[in-house]
TrEMBL record:
<dbReference type="GO" id="GO:0015179">
    <property type="term" value="F:L-amino acid transmembrane transporter activity"/>
</dbReference>
<feature type="transmembrane region" description="Helical">
    <location>
        <begin position="417"/>
        <end position="436"/>
    </location>
</feature>
<feature type="transmembrane region" description="Helical">
    <location>
        <begin position="284"/>
        <end position="311"/>
    </location>
</feature>
<feature type="transmembrane region" description="Helical">
    <location>
        <begin position="129"/>
        <end position="149"/>
    </location>
</feature>
<keyword id="KW-0812">Transmembrane</keyword>
<dbReference type="InterPro" id="IPR002293">
    <property type="entry name" value="AA/rel_permease1"/>
</dbReference>
<feature type="transmembrane region" description="Helical">
    <location>
        <begin position="332"/>
        <end position="350"/>
    </location>
</feature>
<feature type="transmembrane region" description="Helical">
    <location>
        <begin position="51"/>
        <end position="72"/>
    </location>
</feature>
<feature type="transmembrane region" description="Helical">
    <location>
        <begin position="356"/>
        <end position="378"/>
    </location>
</feature>
<keyword id="KW-0472">Membrane</keyword>
<feature type="transmembrane region" description="Helical">
    <location>
        <begin position="92"/>
        <end position="117"/>
    </location>
</feature>
<keyword id="KW-1133">Transmembrane helix</keyword>
<protein>
    <submittedName>
        <fullName>Amino acid permease-associated protein</fullName>
    </submittedName>
</protein>
<feature type="transmembrane region" description="Helical">
    <location>
        <begin position="390"/>
        <end position="411"/>
    </location>
</feature>
<feature type="transmembrane region" description="Helical">
    <location>
        <begin position="156"/>
        <end position="179"/>
    </location>
</feature>
<feature type="transmembrane region" description="Helical">
    <location>
        <begin position="199"/>
        <end position="221"/>
    </location>
</feature>
<feature type="transmembrane region" description="Helical">
    <location>
        <begin position="233"/>
        <end position="253"/>
    </location>
</feature>
């Protein structure tokens, strides 16, 4: 009887537009905007070039979001990219995209956020560094436990953390725009030019700060009216983050000279906070960054297990009956969440999680490119189907998205070909797992 009841349990479709929008914004805005100002400026060579790089990265991300939004409107199901790849290219491609995300990329992203959060907490409270790993584990598990309950709790937490993280961001923008005394445009110094990696490298740095928007698609089965709300959340969320990133960058350039930003490196924004708000400013900003990371981590812990659940539901993973279990009261995939947390915890203890997440960037963008061809394939396959959302300026929009992803792929090959090979190995390992499970099911 209990088995039958568990099989009838479905995910709770309770998330509205604000919850989905908060997850998009909260998952994108982690720590990138706070620490990458100097790196983007150094690569671009001038403040004007850096602003254009942030704008270009945002436009590429927006075209990607618009492209995926059309697919999401037609396939508003739990699993996101895994579902899109399977429906468009076949089961093995869906499996491999999901496999890479649930085994390496997702847990590594969660673990790296936990590790970075631990360092910030240790610095903020002057805790001995011997506590780095335990605090990272406690942080990841605590946020994970929240997501074992109804998805409303995780969504509410996403809304709260998104609002909280926007308060220090708004303060930086306001003080920079209205009290900064520098000319934000045209600043260029020799030291910046000597260390510049070029405008293209600057765009690459911004693209990583914009990443994470697609994860809300994993919750397609839990969003109300997903064929309309999911595209709205993706597009509005990316647009909002683009505006925020541009205003923060402009505010920083209004407050500090290019030479000072280059000299301070990742400490540029903390220095600006101390300068604008006094001694307490740095502490307030640190709290904002801590909340920002916690919110970003919550979004990833809420969304990545949904991929595992979707794959288990489709009987594509070992122990699929166990992993596809939904708690009858909370209607959440508790064992998928626990498994994701377990893998992330192992990475925190034994591996360099940040490096593991970097290794997977190449394969993630390979699947992105394939997905960006999806709307064209679907339009040819089903020319008369009704779409709740259509890509504006088609086919220019997906072409820009594809070009941006190819740029990331080529850059990764040129800068870290060994990492590219390792990322291929992560994917290839999934092939025998897929065929074993296929044979087992048959």
């Amino acid at each position: 009887m209990k088995k039958q009841e568990s099989e009838d349990v479905e995910l709770n479709r309770s998330l509205g537009l604000w919850s989905a929008l908060s997850l998009v914004v909260g998952t994108i805005i982690g720590v990138g905007i706070f620490v990458r100002q100097s790196a983007v400026l150094d690569d671009a060579g001038s403040t004007t070039g850096a602003l254009l790089a942030w704008l270009a990265g945002g436009i590429i991300t927006l075209t990607a979001g618009l492209t995926i939004a059309e697919i999401a409107s037609q396939m508003p199901h739990t699993g996101g990219l895994y579902v899109y790849m399977e429906k468009i290219y076949g089961r093995i491609w869906g499996f491999l995209s999901g496999w890479m995300q649930i085994i390496i990329y997702g847990p590594a992203m969660i673990a790296s956020l936990g590790a970075y959060l631990s360092l910030l907490l240790i610095d903020f409270f002057n805790i001995p560094h011997i506590w780095t790993v335990p605090i990272a584990l406690i942080a990841v598990i605590s946020v994970g436990v929240l997501n074992l309950f109804s998805n409303r709790y995780g969504a509410t937490f996403a809304i709260i953390t998104t609002i909280c993280k926007l308060v220090p961001v708004a303060a930086l923008i306001i003080f920079g725009l209205f009290f900064g005394n520098q000319n934000a445009l045209g600043h260029s110094i020799q030291t910046v030019h000597q260390s510049a990696g070029g405008f293209g490298v600057a765009i690459l740095a911004t693209l990583f700060a914009f990443d994470g928007w697609i994860l809300v698609a994993n919750l397609g089965g839990e969003i109300k009216n997903p064929s309309k709300r999911l595209p709205q959340a993706i597009v509005l969320g990316i647009l909002g983050v683009l505006v925020i990133y541009m205003l923060v960058t402009y505010g920083v350039f209004r407050s500090l000279t290019a030479e000072k930003i280059h000299q301070l490196g990742t400490g540029a924004i903390p220095y600006m906070a101390n300068k604008d708000f006094g001694a307490i400013g740095g502490k307030i900003l640190s709290i904002g960054i801590i909340i920002s990371i916690v919110g970003c981590m919550n979004g990833k812990i809420m969304t990545f297990p949904r991929i595992m659940y979707a794959m288990a539901r489709d009987r594509e993973l070992p122990f699929h009956k166990f992993l596809a279990y939904l708690n009858p009261k909370t209607r959440t995939p508790i064992w998928c969440t626990v498994t994701t947390l377990a893998i992330a915890s192992i990475m925190i203890i034994f591996f360099d999680a940040d490096r593991l997440s970097e290794l997977c960037i190449f394969t993630v963008y390979c699947f992105y490119v394939m997905a960006f061809f999806g709307p064209t394939i679907l339009r040819h396959r089903h020319p008369n189907v009704h779409r709740d959302f259509s890509i504006p300026l088609y086919p220019i929009t997906p072409i820009i998205a594809i070009g941006g992803s190819l740029f990331v792929i080529v850059s990764e090959i040129m800068s870290d070909w060994r990492g590219v090979l390792i990322s291929f190995i992560f994917v290839i390992v999934g092939i025998p797992v897929y065929y074993y499970q296929l044979k087992h099911n048959s």
